[in-house]
Amino acid sequence: MRTEDLIKYDNEHLLHGLTPVKKNQGLVIESADGVILKDTSGKTLMDLSAQAINVNLGHNHRGVLEAAKEQMDRLAFSFILRGFANRPSIELAQKLATILPEGLDHFLWTQTGADTVDSAFRVANLYWKTKGTRKYKIISLRNGYHGTSRGVARATNLAQGIIEEMPPIPGHIHIPAYYCYRCAFDKEYPGCGLQCARFLEYTIENEGKDSVAAFIAEPEQGAAGFMAPPPEYFPMIREICHKYDVLYIDDEVMTGFTRTGKMFAVEHWNVVPDMMCLSKGIVAGYLPFGALAVSSEIFETLSGQFFPAGSTESGNPICCAMASKCIDIYVKERIPEHVAQVGQLARSRMEKEFLSLPYVGTVDGLGLMLAVEIVTDKKTKGRPSPGLTDIIQRRGVEKGALLRVVSNRLGYSPPCTITQEESERGLNILYSVLSELKPRDLAQ
User: Fold this and answer.
1) Which of 55, 111, 308, 410 yields a CA-CA distance of 20 to 30 A from 369?
2) What are 338-364's pLDDT values in tens digits?
3) Any alpha helices (H) in 99-232, and if so which ranges?
4) Is the dihedral of CA 156, 360, 219, 55 positive or negative?
5) Beta 36-39 vs 106-110: how paired, if at all?
């Protein structure tokens, strides 16, 4: 089929998540290698978003693909429901335990980030039920993203709640996030005393500490546009959760596996959660797979209880083999150190060159999960029209790159294996897009 026929059929028959029905980007990706994508018309694009911030090892990494092929030749499928086991899932558990914060060495295999978060909520509910309490409320952050499935949509709080189901699932509470550039409390860091973190304590006390089961947050907000917290934020959150006997769930679906310059983002602050949600980078985005890591306390409390989570594909041996190989690569090739180095150079360039542009308000993020916020005026921090998103995405494609654009925030999240030379090329494209913005672009 010709490219225009493919696009037409897609537009008339396929539903695309997180976009209006009957709307596509007008291009069809056909092949990829490293940081380069190629569409059906022959055009090449730098993948400066790592797709959905999940292709951490770049496209078509031969080592990962070979691991999948070897596992297919040996055992393509064997389920682990009802107490059955397969070798790759056990070996992955042993390997994953060596890179996670100490104590998070018990696992449930899942398929997606949303599936993982949903399982974390179910584990939290079952944990407190087993302990004989009625804790059931889940606290999450405004602008947080934890998936779009029915069980987690209420915890996600983006775009004025349009992802929520109607009627919404009860028991979810949202508190202001940690975004200093637009502080919900109209304060300035560090003189604010981290009121955003302290508000969790206020909320728990007012909701009733005997009713709050868990607090969940991304260590850097991803879908909201790569917003990183002040360094004191999560250590304070950990203390509050411990004080009130509230489970702390760390959503590392997007930030995990070297994305921020650490294997897991909470390592920036030496924080150990009660549960950690993993997906995306665990298999470099090549197949649907995820993992929920839980503490020994949770695991032992649930000992002997019937466990209602899991599905047919949990512990898929091919996915487990790929995940084991990915971990080997992350560790042996020192990908966290590479991301920290390339990311620091990228952020320094953004702060030096991008911030001087008339419509760039701030630079944010950790590692290779960086962003600039586009404003109509630096003093008032005015927000551009929503039409800016499509304008930037289109101009990025014209200049040879697939960009990560969320509202008025332009992200930089290429594969974690990007070279310094490739990174400079990618930043040149971002700079070109930003430097050519005109007042009419911000008003459309």
Assistant:
1) 111
2) 999 999 999 999 999 999 999 999 999
3) 113-130, 195-207
4) positive
5) unpaired
- Regarding whether 234 and 266 lie in a shared domain, the answer is yes
Residue identified by tokens 């897009």 is 433
Q: Which of 311, 332, 353 is the last residue of a domain?
A: 332
Domain membership of residue 67 (yes or no) is no
Token pair in block for residue 149: 């499935």
Using the 3D structure, point to which of 332, 354, 372 is the last residue of a domain: 332
**Which three-class secondary structure state does DSSP give residue 68?**
helix
| Cβ atoms of residues 292 and 119 within 8 Å | yes
pLDDT, tens only, 298-335: 999 999 999 988 899 999 999 999 999 999 999 999 99
Taking the C-alpha atoms of residue 379 and residue 393, their distance in angstroms, rounded to an integer, is 26
Indicate the helix (H) or strand (E) that contains 87. Answer: helix 87-97
Give yes or no for a contact between 175 and 141, defined as CB atoms under 8 angstroms apart: yes
Write the Ramachandran bin of 173: left for phi over 0, alpha for psi from -120 to 50, otherwise beta: beta
CATH number for the domain that contains residue 22: 3.90.1150.10
DSSP at 70? H
Same domain assignment for residues 122 and 157:
yes
